[in-house]
Write a structure and sequence with these properties.
The protein contains ten helices and eleven strands. The chain is of the alpha+beta class. The chain is globular, with a radius of gyration of 20 Å.
Length: 303
């Protein structure tokens, strides 16, 4: 998480985690191989490769994917544009989703319904990674005084799946479920550094500049990733947001794969190239603790 000074306010949101990415080809329900499909709006679908999609469900998902923490309420024209569905199809699905309680409508605005909240509350208790993550993040936040986070890969991006917010007067409003680029920010670079195939895909898509400090040259990014693997952590200073800094380390699973990036984020005034060193051991230790909880028994040489 990188803390943008433009977002100078306390966050009271700590929504439930939604969606965990995974390695392509990983086992899904029943041990079936998982296929990854990215829709036109950038959302990634994971379903067993032997399961044929039901088109009406895919269209309903595209409508639900239009909503985000930045756009919690949308008009019909905006949903139609964002989903890419024909207006008649979109209208019909909106009517049915509202009737079933998945959405609510007030005047011209649609928003997610309370039925989704009831289901989403079941995600954290049901998912082993998230059950084991939150106590580690809470402790890391208390030790460092900064917001702690966990990212997982989702398609060609990373998703924040858990947060322990700092008790500071200046924090960024970071929502669980937020999607961010892989090449900008310490968490994304950790995931790239341990996935060569993913790195090649990201390079092939091009490196978008988010700030003047974003890596936009492929060779420079590759050298940075080699260094991250060597030293066992990543730092970022204003790569994704001006005024924002972060430190991240890899989380390993029982099979020795990196499954997540754990770290802290803060304003650059509190976390700079000259001041991050005392906080680094806390991040590395937290990543080791979570890795062991996931069954990873040995400390990596570079961690």
């Amino acid at each position: 998480m990188e803390v943008a000074l433009s977002d100078v306010k306390r966050s009271r949101d700590s929504g439930p985690a939604i969606g965990l990415g995974g390695r392509e080809g990983a086992a899904g329900p029943g041990g079936l191989p998982v296929a990854r499909v990215t829709s036109g709006n950038g959302q990634t679908d994971r379903r067993p490769s032997s399961v044929k999609p039901i088109l009406v469900l895919e269209k309903a998902r595209r409508i639900l994917d239009c909503f985000s923490p930045d756009a919690p309420e949308l008009t019909f024209p905006r949903i139609t544009a964002a989903s890419g569905l024909p207006a008649s199809t979109c209208y019909r699905l909106l009517h049915n989703l509202t009737a079933e309680g998945f959405l609510e409508r007030e005047s011209d605005l649609y928003r997610p319904g309370m039925k989704l909240l009831r289901w989403s509350a079941l995600v954290v208790p049901a998912h082993a990674l998230l059950r084991k993550t939150q106590p580690v993040l809470d402790q890391l936040r208390d030790e460092t005084g900064e917001s702690a986070f966990l990212y997982v890969r989702e398609g060609m991006a990373r998703r924040c799946v858990a947060v322990a917010e700092a008790r500071q007067s200046v924090v960024r409003v970071l929502h669980v479920g937020q999607v961010m680029p892989l090449h900008a920010g310490s968490g994304g670079k950790v995931l790239l550094a341990h996935d060569e195939a993913l790195t090649q895909h990201v390079l092939g898509e091009g490196l978008t500049a988010h700030t003047p400090s974003t890596f936009t040259d492929g060779d420079q990014l590759m050298r940075e990733l080699v260094e991250i693997r060597r030293r066992g952590y990543s730092v970022s200073f204003e790569e994704r947001d001006l005024g924002a800094s972060s430190i991240s380390a890899p989380v390993w699973d029982v099979s020795g794969h990196v499954v997540a990036a754990l770290g802290i984020g803060a304003p650059v005034q509190r976390l700079s190239p000259d001041t991050y060193a005392p906080l680094l051991p806390h991040v590395l230790r937290a990543a080791q603790v979570l890795s062991r909880r996931l069954g990873h028994e040995r400390d990596e040489e570079n961690v």
